Amino acid sequence: xxxxxxxxxxxxxxxxxxxxxxxxxxxVVDLATLPDKAALLAYLTKESERHLExxxxxxxxxxxxxxxxxxxxxxxxxEAGLSNSEVALAAALWAALxxxxxxxxxxxxxxxxxxxxxxxxxxxxxxLLEADAILLSxxxxxxxxxxxxxxxxxxxxxxxxxxxxxxxxxxxGIAVGAKRNGGQETTLIYQMMDMLGLGMLAVGNDSDTTAxxxxxxxxxxxxxxxxxIYGIDTxxxxxxxxxxxxxxxxxxxxLADRPxxxxxxxxxxxxxxxxxxxxxxxxxxxxxxxxxxxxxxxSIRRCLACDIxxxxxxxxxxxRCIITSSGDDLSDLHAELIQHDILVPVVxxxxxxxxxxxxYQTFIERTRYVRRGDYVWSDLLVVPLGLxxxxxxxxxxxxxxxxxxxxxTVLSRPLVARIVSGRAEGIDDLADxxxxxxxxxERLVSGRLLIATQPDHRYNPVGYVLSANKDAEDEKLQxxxxxxxxxxxxxxxxxxxxxAKPRAKENVVRS
Length: 511
Ligand SMILES: Cc1cc2nc3c(=O)[nH]c(=O)nc-3n(C[C@H](O)[C@H](O)[C@H](O)COP(=O)(O)O)c2cc1C
What we know:
Bound molecules: flavin mononucleotide
């Protein structure tokens, strides 16, 4: 059977959008004709410059005031040019298409009018319902998204059917700002939080440009985004990443065994985090194989910030941090930290820091060797669990998301509860949230394993190398190859035992 082709829908949240209606369809057709990155860049340059020309023709060249230019731009057919955030979105969609997804494009300005009305809501709903994944690209406004992206979040959140449908589907973001530190990352993080809140799963960009929060463009003036090649690369990275995970989810089905869940208790207050994990295990033990690692009782030394990390190239089962002293427990824990399907970092927080015992930050920094060892935690589902005595000032759920996403993982809605009278309030809700994530991970794991065993599967780790010169040495290359082969063999072994055999199709002869 040919592999499933998931649908990735690109949504442009630009108020300076150049494309709408038939122009969106035309963009998708055009992208499919571009054979390589050079052709893509040439196309993006042409369309970006065309957009500047749209402005000039609409009155900028003649020195007209902006209201008149704006009115003239609105008379256009929406078939030529690309605004800055549309350029980045087009790059991401092209990359998703090349990775094996079907793509679509919609401009939110076409639906959400300036007066606040929603034009043709049924069309937008249908397209959202059909999409396996959405890529949302927009400008940075005041270090955050603009009003079109905000309206999209509202549109989904206020519609029960849409909300139910998007739960468990994928989201990836792209933000374009005029300044280098204009708030691209803050925009991506806030937006990711809202999409996770809607029950979506979130991915960042891939390891080509080092795994971060999505596409980040640096372009201000009309018609300039095509010059930011790094920004285009990050956008292509989120396109590839969303397509790759969508493919796994589309291929995936039940597992023959149960998902392997690692609870990492990183910070506790009077044992509440550990007790909450125990309660969750009582409820869900039959749905998963759980390992609980209570890091608050371990000794985790600070990272040394080595210039070469990990110490050497080897297979994933080898501990490769330079810290091996007897006063540090991480080398002993290494085996517990790999070979899981879900990571649940657990943090309890108090108003009174004196009651907190924590290895949170030291542990996070010490995971550097895991990340730089070619992203050992790639594609794992991460479900942060945050318990707090005071929600207002607790940043841990967000920090867990942003640190773990850099491990090239897939994020699921954080489970957050208030601590009341020494217990997590709403344990049933936490258990429901975790059970949902366990169900998603079955599909993710089985799909990933199935894809890994397909003959034309390419696994090219593009992660960190020790250093460009050193990596060029034959020995290093061989070790790298051995590491890749070891991963492939492990995936094959796991696929043989863990992926449930598809049920035989009904064999009925109908006359
Ligand atoms: C109201 C407003 C607020 C903005 N705020 C920021 C900002 O906080 N940081 C930034 O880098 N750029 C900011 N910009 C610049 C836009 O993000 C930038 O021009 C972007 O390229 C627009 O994308 P577009 O052409 O796709 O609409 C702002 C622009 C406007 C109109």
